[in-house]
Amino acid sequence: MKHPIIPENADHELSIQQSQFKNVISIFKEVSRSLPEKTAIISESKSLSYEELDIQSDQLAAYLLGIPLKKGASVAVCMSQSVERIVAFLAVLKIGSAYIPIDGQLPENRIKMIIEDSQTELVITEDLYLDKFEHMQVQLVNMSHGISEPAGNQISIIPDDIDMMQTAYIIYTSGSTGVPKGVEIHHEAFYAFVVSFTELLGYSSRDRTLQFSSAGFDVSIIDIWIPLFTGATVVLYPDNKIIGKPLLDFIVDHKIEVVPFIPPAVLSTLPTNLPIGKLHTISIAGEVPSEQTVKNWCNRVRLINIYGPTETTVGVIAHHFQDDTNPHIIGKPLEGTHIHILNQDLEYVNEGITGEIYIGGKQVAKGYINKPAETSEVFIEAPEWIQSDYGISYRLYKSGDRGFLRKDGNIEFVGRLDEQVKLRGYRIELKEIEHHIGQLAQVANVAVKVHRPEQGQPVLVAFLELYETDKEHITVEDIRARLKQSLPIYMLPEKIILYDKLPLTITGKIDKSKLQVPLQQTARKAKEKVDASDLMQEIKEIWMDLLNLDEINENDNFFELGGHSLMLGQLHARLPLNIQKRISLPELYQFPTVSLFVKEAETRLAQNQLSQQQKARLVEEQLIKDAELPFDFEIAVQPDPKILSDPSTIFLTGVTGFVGSHLLEELIPRNPNAVIYCLVRAENETLGLERIKSTFLKFKLIWKTEYEDKIRIVLGDLTQPKLGIDEKLYEYLLKNIEVIYHMGSDVSYVKPYEHIKKPNVDGMAHILHLAVHEKTKFLIISSSIGVYSWGRSFTGKTWMTEDDPIEQNLPAVCRDMGYIRSKWVMDSMASKARAKGLPLINFRLGFVVCHGETGATPLNQWWSSLMRSCIELKAFPLVMGLKDEVITVDYVSKSIAHISQNPEAIGLNFNLNPLPEHDLSLTDFCVRITDYCGLEMKSLDFETWFEQWKRNHETPVYALLYLFSDDVHEGKSLVEAYENTYYFKSSNTERFLEGSDIRPAIFNKPVIEAYLRYMKMI
Known about the structure:
Strands 13, 14, 15, 16, 17, 18, 19, 21, 22 and 23 form a ten-stranded mixed beta sheet that branches. Helix 3 links the parallel strand 5 and strand 6 (98-101). The protein is α/β, with parallel strands linked by helices and 1018 residues long. Helices cover 33% and strands 19% of the residues. It starts with a strand and ends with a helix. Keywords: Phosphopantetheine, Phosphoprotein.
């Protein structure tokens, strides 16, 4: 077997016989000798060549030898991500001691526990973490200011002096009792892994590799030492561990070719619709990846799955994903490792039969430091019949993992012994439930655990992270209904809890310990006032109470601890009243950590509170600025208007939304010669298509197989420049698209303007870029009647026409929600672009409630939440003349598809709203529900009605609490401000629909019954 190192040639390629070396330090010394000037490590601030790394680690090793340490003593290293940290690790290895990597972000008590348990006397650290060791009896070496020259002559490190049974490093893992256990890995095991794993991956000294893992996690051996023992260049990823697109950008910008380790949960966040630069190999480990993640990456890179407990030196089994994307296949043993799948009697099980995985060979660790009892439980002497094959001193590690041998010789992982639970007499595999939930197209990440309440029986709870664009369109009820189609009743989770982001450990795994089942408890009453000095503790207590946590860090992120948009109403209601008045509910998005929130609250408490007029003036200035066109352009040649009636290429956004999906259904038959390019946020084209199909299914649309021949999936994102589309594809679209239908928007009523601006306003700018570059395209956009807001209070007018300038309503828009502000800016940008010659058609939609026949509706939208609340309360508020211009989605989609094919529509605005005689107010709508469906609802004055539910967070509309409570104008809430809203003329719409059978739906008995039936309210 050959080790790909040495001797050097012109292009820095190395190779060597493994037998030439006795240990890992010998390997490193030879690499340093052969490639002295080659860059070894690159960080944000500096880099070191192999020679410099060798010299600096020699110097530190000499310094450490001058400190009186016991023979075989361990040395802790607590430093941030840096070149110096690797110098420290290497120096400790060189003096024959064991290094203990400690993550400086760990709580001080846990660090103290590690120091005491390992009996470490020396810690190498830096200024940043000195205070962590203030009260510990240890010597400190502070690397922040360098080290003094060692006394006497410079020492010479002799690698051959290292005893292979000496401990090389100690990694602390979480123990089942809550007390961390230090795993002692000796040099023989370390060396055996390096040799076999390097052989497996075939690393080259030409490679640039990413160091991503936490140093306290055993896979740091893979992304620190394997590259350095191969002569590669290691690029350190910053400590912040930002994932998703920024991580992919880092990989591309730094020309990374190999990612030796990345957690599957982190890999799943990387966009798959963007270039990956020189990246060709990725290794994953730590947990079972989702099948979708495997499918997304196995054809783009060489994707290696590594299996191995910390107790057996990082990895003992590996699998290269190719044709078979089964994520549970962990592969075949590395050379020198033996895998035994045994039953409870320590007997081999037959092929295909599940047993426990036992591991033998040179990579088995010495045990747990200073824990002989725990060591003897899992590091066992092999049965005699196994010793007869491998020797009398042969030891096995009892992994606690279950798996079976497949016919092809690969091992398939089944799960943890402790993940197989027994509930109500049934044996249940949690991983199996996670697998089925993970198959849903809307689910980005999932974890399932058993919740054992203080009273009552244990229950299954599923914690889900949805893709951002699906959060408004799918409910827990939808998910539960789909799971019933694939799981037996006894495996269905009793609770499904949605997280904005599932929390991850520092190693990138889903942190199940932070997944909490919210307590059913009465919210504590908000305090009248809290002084700035007490604010930090008060906010921590509110968070802990709301999130059911015993402890919270001031830098913890609300959304990563289980908080979500629907919970923000509860959070805001619990804030001290003097804070509630200064920070609105939507603004909570901007301050997701305790420290950020407290800092902002302190600032606002110290300042004079702005008047409503002053706030509105600031917002007005911002909106006017944002409404400017983002770039200048000239329309040299107008496209042929005849194209509108028979285009060959169409670009459609918002296709996984309510209006966009229905419009797609209309566009396909009306444009028989067109290919429709659909912008979708997804990991790949297959998943993108599945998301569209899933949307059709959810909204009771019929998906026809021939549709797949008519559409093309375009992976992208409205928030990104050039829509996040692959460069070559974007160039093609610039040259070939003829008509753009822009239906995509974030329709959240909770998010502040600052958050919703990116998809809506910036998204509009990116659409305009597509529309005017290379050649001019026709642009059809969906705006909103909301751009008129509740402007009647300022204009004094009763009617608004399609041609009335929306600027006159800006005083109301400035006081309205972030969504309305963003639509006003989008509409204004469209008007300016049209004035410069862009052929544009603007549809201003009323509130799209449901489908006129099926009743399908997004259950979490404003109107549906309000109606469900009124039905549950058996009461509705009397807000005279509050109208949302309610219409049906079939009317909207048919109207847009029909009118947009008429060239005379170019340059016009079209109001899609009910006819005045059918324009229902909130009162009208609720009375019809009572009359048509027999659901009793009485009218109450606004305050009495609001009082009935404002402290009950189970009320469907609770997430929008601020709409009913915050004073926006003259003592009125936003909902109250909408009383006696405008009536709207839609002359253009009526004229262009003449001769067609398209009419605004009347909310009669069949429509309202279908609507309530879809919501399961009747």
